[in-house]
Amino acid sequence: MGQDGAAMRRRGVLQATAASVLTIAGFGGPAHAQAKGSLKSTHGTGFCNLNLFLAHALQLAKADGLEIQFVNTPTFAEQVTFLGMGQVDLGLMPYTSFIALFNAGAPVKIVAGGGIEGCSIVARPGLDSAAKLKGKTLGTFQLDTLEVMPYDWLKKHGVSFKDVTVRYMGNTPEAVEAFKAGAIDWICTIEPYATALVNDVPGAVRLSDGRDIYGAGYTDCVLACRASLIKENPAALKSVIKAMMKAQAMAEAKPEEVLPKLVGTYYKTSMPNAQLAMEKQPAVVDARSQTDFILQRTDSLVEMGYIKNKPGRDAIDWSLLEQVIAENAALYASLKLKSA
């Protein structure tokens, strides 16, 4: 894929997103008021979603009078744009996707963390260096950390993104099957799918787990919401954040009891692969220490043609997270992974 063509495709998606956001903003308003006692959320497929998945599976916010409802979408793109268009209240998504939405004018804010690490670049047998990927086909998702990470990794190793062919996939299962079938040469994906590919495809090579580029503990996904909800219904948002914190505590203390509740329904993988994936991509609610990392990744998005203006600190609002932490000191103290 040529650089000019790639830029045009990216700009087209961004313009479409911005148009949708403006259209909904002009005719939305009260129509988006959530049902009493419930919030609607989209989600991804990786282990960074574990806290939200477990909170949904066990309805951990019910004690605070809130039901967490999932809105499932057929493609990754819709997981993101549903929040931008106000069709859901919140969503757990790659921070890069959030930044593009925010830059396009969507009224959204980051309010909590999703997960850390767990992104991997996996290549087919013999493709064990950046140089060997020239002319090869990458399977990834547009406006995703899983597109930015290959861009950053190739750049670090002196290879231009324009020297590879990029194929945008509809969803993770499609991407995984394409890799197994040899329809794509390399893939950037999340857990548990990265570990499954390395284990299940003979000779598959894990070229990067992200730590060689970003360092240990880098964030992947975030919990974002409609900005107006922070003032309209802070109690509901706090209930979701608290529920996710409860889920993290359960997952860290008794992973052997948590995984059976999620594997099969929320994660289409084997239990051994899930156990490995859980270690590689922990779900962490308190992402305050990742503020600078999230905002610094905008440099790559500018270079890739996705955004023109870098979002400021106002894109992130940790105030409700900090209230939940202050009001649930014992629960927060029990968490192993956190910013403080």
Explained architecture:
This protein has 16 helices and ten strands. It has two domains: 3-116 and 217-334, Periplasmic binding protein-like II (D-Maltodextrin-Binding Protein, domain 2), CATH 3.40.190; 119-214, Periplasmic binding protein-like II (D-Maltodextrin-Binding Protein, domain 2). The termini are far apart. Helix 2 (50-57) packs across helix 10 (234-253), helix 10 (234-253) packs across helix 11 and helix 10 packs across helix 15. With 340 residues, the chain is α/β, with parallel strands linked by helices. The model is unreliable at 1-36 (pLDDT under 50). The longest helix is centred in the N-terminal third of the chain and has 25 residues, at 3-27.
Assigned CATH architecture of the largest domain:
3-Layer(aba) Sandwich
Q: What is CATH's topology name of the largest domain?
A: D-Maltodextrin-Binding Protein, domain 2
**Major pleated sheet:** 5 strands, mixed
Shape: globular
Q: Work out the radius of gyration.
A: 19 Å
**Order of strands in the sheet with the most strands?**
2-1-3-10-4
The CATH superfamily of the largest domain is known as Periplasmic binding protein-like II
- Integer count of domains: 2
- Structural class of the helix and strand makeup? alpha/beta
Number of helices: 16
Low-confidence stretches: 1-36
Distance between the termini: 44 Å
Strand content: 15-25%
